[in-house]
Design goal:
By secondary structure, the protein is mostly beta strands. The chain contains four helices and 14 strands. The protein folds into three domains: 106 residues, Baseplate protein-like domains (Phage tail protein beta-alpha-beta fold, 3-Layer(bab) Sandwich); 72 residues; 55 residues, no CATH class.
Length: 254
């Protein structure tokens, strides 16, 4: 629970809840010195951080045998997520807490969202409403991407590697990501540009509640003007209406 609000007039109680991953943003290093793990297995490092949060350890991981860059440091004042994210990104991995069992898992990003599955929402059946919008003012929309990596090699020499990609030429807005980690050896800018480009088109649908759907699911939406596939970005359950509202991105008409 994150917050509690009491309405004395209407005699209601409103609770704000968050998943365990929120602790990664809550906890910032307050030690007297920066945390320098040195040469350490990535799994062990993640578990050390989770232990500080009163969580973990991980029960499954794709990082076994991966060694963290010895130059990595957790700076005082930085959150656990800010420290771990570049390390996970460099290994093409993601860290999440299983909602069903409260277990922490590290998985490979290339396998997609940790919550995978499909669902179909159909006009005249389980669909309640559908609203489509195009919003190019979204901060995470772009038609080009630039990714940079900065690090010091074994000799202490500063190194920089850039990757760039665009959907159209000329492009108009570049989505930028910068990492203070060694070059992982693969170009992620193309995938980043594609994801940023599809974020301009948003489809919001409300349907009869399906508690199996989570962010990351692939859904097929059958509307009067055609059939669409999309990825669930966010979902909200409504009670007592027993409906679920999905925010969909990567919307493609098939």
């Amino acid at each position: 629970m994150r917050s509690r609000q009491i309405d004395y007039v209407h005699d209601t109680l409103t609770l704000t809840l968050a998943s365990a991953e929120a602790k990664l943003d809550d906890y910032a290093l307050a030690d007297l010195n920066d945390y320098a793990p040195g040469t350490i297995n990535a799994d062990t490092l993640v578990n050390n951080v989770l232990a500080r949060l009163g969580e973990g350890p991980t029960v499954a991981s794709t990082l076994s045998g991966n060694i963290v860059d010895p130059a990595s440091k957790w700076l005082r004042g930085d959150t656990a997520r800010k420290f771990l994210q570049p390390i996970l990104d460099a290994k093409n991995a993601t860290l999440y807490c299983n909602l069903a069992g409260g277990q922490w898992i590290i998985s490979d990003k290339t396998t997609g969202s940790p919550f995978t599955g499909t669902a179909t929402i159909t006009y005249g059946d389980n669909l309640v409403s559908a609203v489509g919008s195009v919003d190019l003012e979204r901060g995470d929309w772009g038609d080009a991407a630039a990714v940079s990596y900065r690090w010091a090699d074994a000799a202490g020499v500063s190194r920089t590697k850039f990757y760039t990609s665009s959907i159209v030429i000329p492009y108009h807005r570049t989505f930028v990501q910068a990492f203070n980690t060694p070059d992982p050896g693969f170009d992620s800018s193309s995938g980043l540009a594609n994801r940023a480009y599809t974020r301009g088109v948003i489809l919001t649908v409300t349907c009869l509640s399906d508690r199996q759907i989570f962010p990351g699911y692939t859904v097929t939406v059958v509307l009067p003007d055609g059939t669409y596939t999309a990825t669930v970005r966010a979902c909200a359950w409504e009670y007592p209406a027993d409906t679920i509202t999905l925010t969909l991105e990567n919307v493609v008409k098939i």
